[in-house]
């Protein structure tokens, strides 16, 4: 997502930074390019217009034109404007302050990812907020819909409302709330029926359910891949039933990102969450400042750390951290680390979250470097070493290297490469050690 927009914007700023002092014409020309890049990314026209006007106004201020690195100054202004367009800094949390059971109403078109998202939210509230969640499907249109939600709930380890054939949506919603009250649920997620297109009957149904349950949230699920259509859908749902937030699904796809950038301006509703995959864990808070950072290739360190802390085995990483701090990190630990990184998913995906790594990511992808294969090879090399060699890599001299290469079906060169990488890593760790944890935190939050 955002890849092409990101690439084009980087190009604009690179052009600016080569120029030294900027004239108004330079800024105007840059804004033309930004405008084209945004239109190309499917951002809604009024949003683009408003965006470039804002940036131009701020950029032609004397500050930028006279500043030492005007390219950077403009990039900062664009960054701020992106954050504004995405809804302002900070994720907007789900409303959890209402008296229990808190009803959440899920609305959206069929195929938008609504049912999956309902399950994802249920899992998230269960695991992170320690809430007791009940899922209920109000979809009596598609015969298998209620069953689908029930199975999803089972996969998520969350309760779902028993199915009573023949009940109508409003009755089901009332029953869900009743069960919620009686059995002490904190949150009741009501998954309404989706349609292929917006029709009056669907809107009326949503309004009826809403009147019967007074939901704390009416969350619209839209598919980021549908671009402008997602924004139109949101606008119409908002006018017809009023939404309190948007969940944008399929943010993991190669959508051009325009929907995310237009949503707030067109509907007034914040994007609260983003779906990033088919798995039930693939749901993230939507942080405009992080998304803006990704668009501008500034990386998303905070997101990376969060993802890492969710995926990586806590006990194991604490053990590794302790060994690092004690300066006792060896090749066995290195192997364990590789296994952990593998768990994080594609390496190029991780690179995309690191500042300035966007380009490297492109290179990796264009050359089709198979990082999983590299890791596999490294693990094979390490497992061909003796225990002593893994503990004290310094003893690995020429003859040992030959033996290890033969044993792992690699070459001495590859063994050298691994040892060098391990060495580099040890150096970085020593640096981090010197900085101390405080310095580390400062770096990550700064
Ligand atoms: P509904 O008709 O709106 O309830 O849509 P579903 O929840 O049944 O989802 C339709 C398809 O989209 C399913 O195959 C989901 O696995 C998939 N899906 C949902 N959310 C995401 C997402 O964030 N990323 C990806 N890649 N797929 C998703």
UniProtKB/TrEMBL annotation:
Record keywords, A-Z: Cytoplasm, GTP-binding, Hydrolase, Nucleotide-binding, Ribonucleoprotein, RNA-binding, Signal recognition particle
Database matches in Gene3D superfamilies: P-loop containing nucleotide triphosphate hydrolases, Signal recognition particle SRP54, nucleotide-binding domain, Signal recognition particle, SRP54 subunit, M-domain
Binding residue positions for GTP: 108-115, 191-195, 249-252
GO molecular function, one term: GTP binding
Any Pfam family hit: SRP54_N
Annotated localization: Cell inner membrane; Cytoplasm
Catalyzed reaction equations: GTP + H2O = GDP + phosphate + H(+)
Keyword Ribonucleoprotein: yes
Superkingdom of this protein's organism: Bacteria
Domain SRP54-type proteins GTP-binding: 270-283
GO biological process: SRP-dependent cotranslational protein targeting to membrane
EC number: 3.6.5.4
Any one cellular-component term (Gene Ontology): plasma membrane
Membrane topology reported for the UniProt record: Peripheral membrane protein
Family of the protein in this entry: Belongs to the GTP-binding SRP family. SRP54 subfamily.
Assembly mode: Part of the signal recognition particle protein translocation system, which is composed of SRP and FtsY. SRP is a ribonucleoprotein composed of Ffh and a 4.5S RNA molecule.
NCBIfam families per the UniProt record, alphabetical: ffh
Domain notes: Composed of three domains: the N-terminal N domain, which is responsible for interactions with the ribosome, the central G domain, which binds GTP, and the C-terminal M domain, which binds the RNA and the signal sequence of the RNC.
Function: Involved in targeting and insertion of nascent membrane proteins into the cytoplasmic membrane. Binds to the hydrophobic signal sequence of the ribosome-nascent chain (RNC) as it emerges from the ribosomes. The SRP-RNC complex is then targeted to the cytoplasmic membrane where it interacts with the SRP receptor FtsY. Interaction with FtsY leads to the transfer of the RNC complex to the Sec translocase for insertion into the membrane, the hydrolysis of GTP by both Ffh and FtsY, and the dissociation of the SRP-FtsY complex into the individual components.
Protein name from the UniProt record: Signal recognition particle protein
Organism, scientific name: Acidomonas methanolica NBRC 104435
């Amino acid at each position: 997502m955002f890849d092409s927009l990101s690439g084009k914007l980087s190009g604009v700023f690179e052009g600016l930074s080569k120029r030294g002092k900027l004239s108004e014409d330079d800024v105007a020309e840059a804004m033309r390019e930004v405008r084209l890049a945004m239109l190309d990314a499917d951002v809604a026209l009024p949003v683009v217009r408003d965006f470039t006007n804002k940036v131009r106004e701020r950029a032609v201020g004397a500050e930028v034109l006279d500043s030492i690195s005007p390219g950077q100054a403009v990039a900062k202004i664009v960054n701020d404007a992106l954050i504004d367009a995405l809804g302002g800094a900070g994720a907007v949390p789900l409303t959890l302050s209402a008296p229990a059971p808190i009803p959440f109403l899920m609305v959206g078109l069929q195929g938008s990812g609504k049912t999956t998202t309902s399950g994802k939210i249920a899992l998230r509230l269960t695991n992170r907020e320690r809430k007791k969640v009940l899922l209920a499907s109000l979809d009596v249109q598609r015969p298998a819909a209620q069953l689908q939600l029930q199975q999803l709930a089972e996969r998520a380890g969350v309760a779902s409302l028993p199915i009573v054939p023949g009940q109508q949506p409003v009755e089901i919603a009332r029953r869900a709330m009743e069960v919620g009250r009686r059995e002490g649920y904190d949150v009741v997620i009501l998954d309404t029926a989706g349609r292929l297109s917006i029709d009056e009957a669907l809107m009326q149904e949503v309004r009826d359910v809403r009147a019967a349950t007074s939901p704390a949230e009416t969350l619209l699920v839209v598919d980021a891949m549908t671009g402008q259509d997602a924004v139109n859908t949101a606008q119409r749902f908002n006018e017809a039933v009023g939404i309190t937030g948007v969940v944008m699904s399929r943010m993991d796809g190669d959508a051009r990102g325009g929907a995310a950038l237009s949503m707030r301006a067109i509907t007034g509703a914040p994007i609260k969450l983003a779906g990033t995959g088919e798995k039930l864990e693939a749901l993230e808070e939507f942080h405009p400042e992080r998304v803006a950072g990704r668009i501008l290739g500034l990386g998303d360190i905070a997101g990376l750390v969060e993802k890492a802390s969710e995926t990586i085995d806590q006990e194991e990483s604490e053990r590794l951290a302790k060994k690092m701090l004690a300066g006792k990190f060896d090749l066995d630990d290195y192997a364990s680390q590789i296994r952990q990184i593998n768990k994080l998913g594609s390496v190029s995906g991780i690179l995309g979250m690191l500042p300035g790594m966007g380009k490297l990511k492109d290179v990796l992808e264009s050359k089709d470097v198979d990082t999983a294969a590299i890791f596999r090879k490294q693990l094979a090399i390490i497992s061909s070493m003796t225990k002593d060699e893994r503990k004290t890599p310094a003893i690995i001299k020429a003859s040992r290297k030959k033996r290890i290469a033969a044993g792992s079906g690699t070459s001495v060169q590859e063994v050298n490469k691994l040892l060098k990488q391990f060495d580099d890593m040890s150096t970085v760790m020593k640096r981090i050690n010197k900085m101390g944890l405080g310095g580390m935190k400062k770096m990550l939050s700064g």
